[in-house]
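Project outcomes to date are best conveyed with an example. Our students and postdoctoral researchers have been running inverse folding experiments weekly, and each run begins with a structure described purely in tokens. The record below, which covers 360 residues, was selected by the lab manager from last quarter's runs and is presented without edits.
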């Protein structure tokens, strides 16, 4: 029996995708082998990876002057890959809105003049700083943001106007959740394990004019130009996650595309946020205008009650609602694959728990 998995990542995948993968696990098509066994240089796999790219380009409406790379190392490897490829003037600006943007900033400081031009740490990352062109330093190679903050449950509700300075965004926990104007970004990257595929795949969408300026001492496997010139196959790619990702891209299209996904995700999030706003037992710390559709955080205000909540929720089939160790409380990650029934079941449990465990 499958449970409702609220994990922030690796997270639940669409059931139709899992079922299709199961049916093809032992033999893909008439290849006589599993995708996990076949050569990435073979004709069957070439069809898989080229099809996955074409499907992603279609659902995200990626312009022709952008390269799509299927890489490894998670978003964390991009924390250093981005400055090594894009920091031509050795100068870059960062917005600190949570743990991962802070990690990316600290990594970039190793390679040049990286500056934190805005931060929401003063309020424990419960809001998103507002940035305008005037905040960006002259000569900056790019501005880096984390578009959705998995741990704190916040999301950019606007796309910063950076002028001629390329905007770089970590979209690991919100990619494919709603339409995005890719042309407003110089580079988008995302670890796939939250909303796309199993862990092991990292998606990089980069404007062509930003490729080819990497430092001479960059490791070849991290050089966007080398990876682009080799069709993401300079080294063996993460074959199985790419195969799953391709099916997820197709599933999004079948669901009606990103406009439909946005509407469904807003509907799901509203079920949980409306309940949180209607009562006083649970506290939702994020400022309303910056609330994430993908990661909803809340606390009781009592660490022992929070621990009891997470334990009893798990026993009731609501798995992985314990908040990140750095902030505590609870976190419900309701990515694309989470059905609205799962969110409604969580709310019903929250109501029951509050009645059975009065505070003070």
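After processing, the design step wrote out the following sequence:
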């Amino acid at each position: 029996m499958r449970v409702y998995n609220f994990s922030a990542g690796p997270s639940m995948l669409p059931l139709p995708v899992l079922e299709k993968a199961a049916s093809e696990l032992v033999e893909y098509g008439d290849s006589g082998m599993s995708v996990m066994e076949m050569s990435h240089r073979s004709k069957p796999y070439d069809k898989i990876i080229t099809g996955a790219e074409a499907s992603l380009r279609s659902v995200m409406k990626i312009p022709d002057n952008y390269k799509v790379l299927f890489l490894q190392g998670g978003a964390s490897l991009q924390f250093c890959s981005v400055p090594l490829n894009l920091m031509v003037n050795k100068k870059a600006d960062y917005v600190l809105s949570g743990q991962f943007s802070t990690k990316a900033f600290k990594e970039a400081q190793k390679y040049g003049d990286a500056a934190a031009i805005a931060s929401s740490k003063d309020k424990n990352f419960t809001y998103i700083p507002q940035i305008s062109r005037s905040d960006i330093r002259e000569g900056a190679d790019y501005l880096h943001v984390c578009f959705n903050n998995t741990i704190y449950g916040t999301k950019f509700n606007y796309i910063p106007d950076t002028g001629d300075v390329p905007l770089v965004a970590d979209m690991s926990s919100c990619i494919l959740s709603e339409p995005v104007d890719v042309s407003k970004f110089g580079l988008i990257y995302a670890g796939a394990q939250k909303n796309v595929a199993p862990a092991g795949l990292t998606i990089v969408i980069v404007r062509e004019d930003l490729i080819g300026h990497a430092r001479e001492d960059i490791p070849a496997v991290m050089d966007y130009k080398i990876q682009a010139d080799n069709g993401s196959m300079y080294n063996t790619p993460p074959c199985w996650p790419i195969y799953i990702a391709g099916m997820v891209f197709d599933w999004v299209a079948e669901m009606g595309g990103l406009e439909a996904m946005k509407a469904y995700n807003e509907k799901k999030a509203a079920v949980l946020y409306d309940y949180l706003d209607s009562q006083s037992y649970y506290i939702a710390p994020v400022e309303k205008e910056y609330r994430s559709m993908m990661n909803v955080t809340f606390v009781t205000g009592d660490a022992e009650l929070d621990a009891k909540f997470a334990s009893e929720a798990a026993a009731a089939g609501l798995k992985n609602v314990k908040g990140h160790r750095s902030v505590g409380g609870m976190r419900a990650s309701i990515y694309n694959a989470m059905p609205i029934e799962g969110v409604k079941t969580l709310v019903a449990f929250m109501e029951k728990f509050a009645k059975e465990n009065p505070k003070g």
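The domain at 4-8+257-356 is CATH 3.90.1150.10 (Aspartate Aminotransferase, domain 1). The first strand starts at residue 4 and ends at 5. The training component of this project remains on track.
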